[in-house]
Specification:
The chain has 709 residues and is α/β, with parallel strands linked by helices. It is 38% helix and 18% strand. The protein binds adenosine-5'-diphosphate and magnesium ion. Adenosine-5'-diphosphate binds next to α11.
Length: 709
């Protein structure tokens, strides 16, 4: 039997179970099975006595015998055994006891399976979060394991499983036995995936040791060594593949060469009303180096809200113009494009460079002028929404494409930008995002891009006071806004959704708007409203009124989330704040604190807020550092969710390492991968043959993520 042997031939499996293992856990070979690691271990030495279980403990494990099992219907009535129909059961309650006391185990799902399993008199190990409900100690949906998995040793692995697998008899005990058989069969044939020198230099345990110990650890120490080795291997190979792709691309993608800084750049720079921050200067240097390298730039620029990315965009665009090329800046919304246009035009005054705005609402006549100006080169910088990637838009010599708030654009849209380059050479690409991405996630999502970070705020930005209040403070909140308006300030009020389903008790925007108009009556107060269902004209009209100060309050959905700059606005009220993610709340808050005045962000919380949501809101009140928030967000929600909100996927799924927890190993693995590639960029040296071979595996044949822009 070799590692590649089909799983069905492993003794104890057979075709039926093999099909299930394939459909439930994507295991088709013995090797796949061996690479399925326990997600936790039952440590027999750490069983807690029920008398010592306390609801403050995070998670505990008790060894207890089932006393009595009761089933309850939705209305709370107990269902007698002779009337049992599982579809009527909404809750299963099992009283369990050890020699020190008793507690309750509660299940709302998988009731049938649990009912057949939790036979009174039988003993299990229950693992979960203890809580108190109605004076009684309980655990909701604990993991349930047989106390003796038939495996010796203190630590017993617990594998991912599903109800289907358990129903087919693949219990934890069986899984352990299969694993034991699989290891015995294939370990002798397993080839080390990492070269000897890597193991030596990084002090890693050999693969065979790691595989044996991860499944059947001798002790904690051996387990730690095994787990470190496997995590390092996973992250290292992933980074190696990303960095290698990046290397190949930088070698092959010819880029437009822009050696000069140019007069326009200098004219703009010298007329700046402020000194650039150190971070802005560093980033501009990095971009300039890319643009004159002869290779195509593919750079991600990350900078918190208000960190001054626009200026970096303008100066980069001017480098392109100074070398005889054109640049475009693409923004996700009409409003944002207009604002960019207004800002950029201002900055361009001293340079004489022409700039045009192209959006969905540009008139046909103006469009024709712009098309002509782009073709003859008289327009140096084009700003707009995705209208500017339409095929009719042709540049004389597009040299740089800047994409603001990258995550709002689809991959195909970005690809169309690529095709607008000069002489079929793709333009340099700079992608700007204000969504702080945790470093570990950025290294993985954008592992093959160059990343610049503006990690410094322009001077003069005032801290924003953030408060979280409940419904009882609504009047106080209105009064507070009146005071601010009396001081000449403006306020944003953001609602989560428009036309919410009636069942839910969240305020929708329309109700909110009516309420605000009542609380802030005309003619004394002026309220503008912006939402996704308006025409672009309506949106601009309302937005402009607020930007120009004709409206005191802007009621909106999250469309203002990105980029809008109204320095005079000093209050941001977020309704049903618990419904937003941390990063989004942070983005919204970034809309205030831009002027000279003190600013406030008021989080209105609903009546029913989960503990976890409250934790998010508290965190937001405690810090203004976007990266810190992003890290926390990832820890709370896991990278999968975070990445989901960014509409892009991880290059490969991770088996054992965690982006949230293994940041240090990741940084080390990435630096080491870079070090190896520096010495052998194509991994063609004999000593790196095992690495080359690993990278041939399917999972590393990923889409080219460099083309995200
Ligand atoms: P973002 O990174 O969110 O796009 P902006 O480019 O809109 O940030 O800049 C936010 C504000 O800070 C703008 O009003 C801009 O004029 C100002 N600003 C940018 N750079 C500096 C600087 N170096 N010093 C002072 N103010 C700056
Ligand atoms: Mg911006």
């Amino acid at each position: 039997m070799t590692p590649d042997t089909s799983i069905q031939y492993l003794p104890g499996v057979g075709p039926k179970r093999a099909a299930l293992l394939q459909s439930e856990l994507e295991i088709s070979t013995v090797w796949d099975l061996v690479r399925l690691y326990p997600f936790r271990y039952i440590d027999r030495s750490s069983i807690v006595r029920i008398a010592d279980v306390h609801p403050d403990l995070a998670q505990v494990q008790v060894r207890a015998t089932v006393q009595k099992v009761r089933l309850y219907a939705k209305n709370g009535a107990e269902i007698p055994a002779d009337k049992l129909k599982y579809n009527l059961v909404s809750r299963l309650s099992a009283m369990v006891a050890d020699e020190s006391g008793e507690m309750e185990m509660v299940f709302f799902k998988g009731v049938k399976w649990m009912h057949t399993r939790l036979v009174p008199g039988s003993t299990f190990i229950f693992f979960g979060k203890p809580a108190v409900f109605g004076n009684r100690l309980n655990m909701v949906h604990p993991e349930v394991d047989a106390p003796d998995n038939g495996v010796s040793g203190v630590l017993t692995g617990v594998y991912p499983s599903t109800e289907k697998l358990k129903n087919a008899g693949i219990t934890g005990k069986v899984m352990n036995r299969l694993m034991s058989t699989a290891l015995a069969e294939v370990l002798p044939a397993v080839q080390e995936t990492l070269p000897d020198y890597v193991l030596r230099e990084k002090g890693l345990a050999p693969l065979t040791f790691a595989l044996r110990q991860i499944h059947f650890p001798q002790d904690q120490d051996a387990l730690a060594k095994a787990s470190y080795r496997l995590k390092f291997e996973e992250l290292f190979l992933l980074q190696l593949s990303l960095l290698k792709q990046k290397y190949v691309r930088s070698r092959s993608a010819v880029g437009l060469n822009m050696p000069a800084v140019g007069e326009a750049f200098n004219a703009c720079y010298n007329a700046l009303p402020y000194e650039l921050t150190g971070a802005q200067k560093r980033v501009i240097r990095e971009i300039r180096e890319d643009m004159r390298s002869g290779h195509q730039m593919n750079r991600l620029l990350q900078g918190d809200v208000g960190s001054g990315k626009t200026m970096v965009a303008v100066l980069s665009a001017l480098i392109a113009v100074g070398n005889g090329y054109q640049a475009c800046i693409m923004a996700p919304t009409e409003v944002l494009s207009q604002q960019h246009y207004a800002n950029v035009t201002k900055y361009l005054k001293p340079t004489g460079v022409h700039c045009a705005l192209l959006t969905g609402t540009t008139t046909a006549a103006r469009r024709r002028e712009i098309h002509a100006g782009l073709r003859d080169g008289s327009i140096g910088i084009l700003i707009g929404t995705h209208a500017l990637i339409e095929d009719t838009v042709q540049f004389k010599a597009l040299g740089l494409a800047i994409v603001d708030e990258q995550h709002r654009f689809g991959v195909e849209q970005r690809a169309r930008l690529w095709n607008k380059g000069y002489n079929a050479i793709p333009p340099h690409v700079l992608v700007m995002t204000a969504t702080p991405i945790p470093r570990t996630l950025a290294m993985t999502l954008y592992g093959d891009l160059d990343v610049s970070v503006i990690d410094q705020m322009p001077p003069g930005r005032k801290p924003v006071t953030t408060l979280c209040v409940g419904e009882t403070k609504r009047h106080a909140m209105h009064n507070f806004i009146r005071d601010e308006i009396a001081k000449g300030r403006q306020a944003f009020m953001v609602y989560p959704l428009i036309f919410e389903s009636e069942k839910m008790d969240y305020k929708n925007l329309q109700l909110g708007y009516e309420e605000i108009v009542k609380a802030f009556p005309m003619p004394r107060y002026k309220v503008a409203i912006v939402h996704g269902q308006q025409t672009p004209q309506e949106k601009s009209f309302n937005m402009d009124a607020f930007v120009a100060g004709r409206a005191d309050i802007l009621v909106s959905t999250t469309v203002i989330e990105v980029g809008v700059d109204v320095p005079n606005a000093s209050v941001m009220v977020i309704e049903s704040a618990e419904r937003f993610g941390l990063s989004q709340l942070h983005q919204l808050r970034g809309r205030v604190g831009r002027g000279a005045e003190r600013s406030y962000c008021i989080l209105m919380r609903g009546n029913k807020v989960s503990k976890e949501s409250q934790k998010r809101l508290d965190l937001l009140c405690a810090t203004e550092n976007g990266f810190e928030l992003a890290e926390e967000d990832m820890k709370m929600r896991g990278p999968g969710d975070l990445e989901g909100t960014m509409q892009s996927g991880l290059p490969i799924s991770l088996n054992i390492a965690s982006l949230a927890k293994d940041g240090l190993i990741l940084s080390d693995a990435r630096a080491y991968a870079q070090h190896i590639l520096d010495g052998d960029p194509t991994l063609s040296q004999q000593k790196n043959a095992p690495l080359q071979q690993e990278l041939q595996r399917d999972k590393y044949q990923t889409k080219d993520y460099s083309k995200i822009s």
